[in-house]
Amino acid sequence: MQTLSIIIPCYNEESVIETTYGRIKAILSSLSSVSSQMIFINDGSKDKTLDILSDIANKDLSVKVINFSRNFGHQAAVTAGIHHCTTDFAVIIDADLQDPPELIPELLTKQKEERANVVYCVRRKRIGESKFKLWTAKKFYRTLNRLSEVDFPLDTGDFRLIDSQIIEQFKRFKERGKYIRGLISWVGFKQVPFYYEREARLAGETKYPLKKMLSFATTALFYFSKKPLLMATGLGFATVVIGIFMALWYILGKIFGYTNAESGWTSIMIIVIFFGGIQLLTIGVLGQYIGILFDEVKERPEYIVKDFINGK
Ligand code: UDP
Ligand code: MG
């Protein structure tokens, strides 16, 4: 019999978690040919999420809970879920039911039909999300594709089915800043899309405020692309060329008397600000990569588990 894990990261999801469990459980019970378990990761919730999860896990032994010592973020939570996965397949799904669990059987069918290692879900439509989020997400995925060496599928979140080969390869990634959907694309094997409509959050509010969205986007960009460094070099080169022309212009102007160099306060200020700005910008880009190196060489654990319910 094939085995399946459902990986569900949870952060302050007390208003939805019970319903989420119920809906996933109903679907899993209907799958007679697969033996399944649910892995909930409590990512340092400050509300009653953990209490609710413990109650559920005490009644249902197929529910495992990985309880973090504090909030480590969505990607760390999914990572922990995959690390503790030993089944033939895993489905990564959000706790807020934006990704309908009813699609899980279809993902399994698609996997079987196409003999795929990954079935990734592409959002054809996103309901109940702000215009700003839709626009930034769209721009983000397209820009990232242009800048990175990997071809990522567009409009795809972490909602996907992966098989044991992918799970095994994923466990080999040592980097701490994880952009999971990117890493899974990067692994290769056979990956096929599955189109769906993303629903609105069932209850509660998004756990991805602008700050987290930005940090998520930055990780994706700087971990998957060295182009910003190349762009910084290009910018430096371009300003050197501009500088040479300006120098020539002013020197010749001095000789032939067509510039009024004495009253040149404005031009000097512009040059100072312009070059100063470019220098700071390029140093900033360098700084981003140094910051990442700093974080990675420390080799701190990505997450800390306080305890498990129903085994590891
Ligand atoms: N999440 C998490 N840790 C965090 C933030 C979010 O485990 O620090 C979980 C959250 O509980 C949900 C999933 O990640 O199951 C996606 O978060 P959310 O639905 O808030 O993001 P959105 O759908 O608004 O992008
Ligand atoms: Mg959501």
Ions, cofactors and other bound molecules:
uridine-5'-diphosphate, magnesium ion
Number of strands: 8
What's the number of structural domains? 2
**Structure class:** alpha/beta
CATH topology of the largest domain: Spore Coat Polysaccharide Biosynthesis Protein SpsA, Chain A
| Overall morphology | elongated
Q: Numbering strands along the chain, what is their spatial order in the largest sheet?
A: 7-5-6-4-1-2-3-8
User: Averaging pLDDT over every residue, what do you get?
Assistant: 89
Count of separate DSSP helical elements = 10
From the N-terminal CA to the C-terminal CA, the straight-line distance is: 21 Å
Low-pLDDT runs: none
Q: Helix and strand succession?
A: EHEHEHEHEHEHHEHHHE
- Architecture per CATH nomenclature, i.e. the level-2 architecture of the largest domain: Alpha-Beta Complex
Give the name of the CATH superfamily of the largest domain. Answer: Spore Coat Polysaccharide Biosynthesis Protein SpsA, Chain A
CATH class of the largest domain: Alpha Beta
Describe the structure.
There is one protein chain. The protein is of the alpha/beta class and 312 residues long. The chain has 2 domains: 2-225 and 305-309, Spore Coat Polysaccharide Biosynthesis Protein SpsA, Chain A; 227-298. The protein has 10 helices and 8 strands. It has helices spanning 17-30, 49-59, 74-83, 104-114, 131-147, 164-170, 180-187, 210-224, 227-256, 265-298, and strands at residues 2-10, 34-42, 63-68, 89-92, 118-126, 156-163, 191-198, 305-309. An 8-stranded mixed β-sheet has the order 7-5-6-4-1-2-3-8, sandwiched between helices. Helix 9 packs antiparallel against helix 10 (265-298). The protein is elongated, with a radius of gyration of 25 Å. The two termini are 21 Å apart. Residues 9-11, 13, 43, 71, 73-74, 77, 94-96, 98, 201, 206-208 line the site of uridine-5'-diphosphate. The site of magnesium ion has 5 residues, from loops.
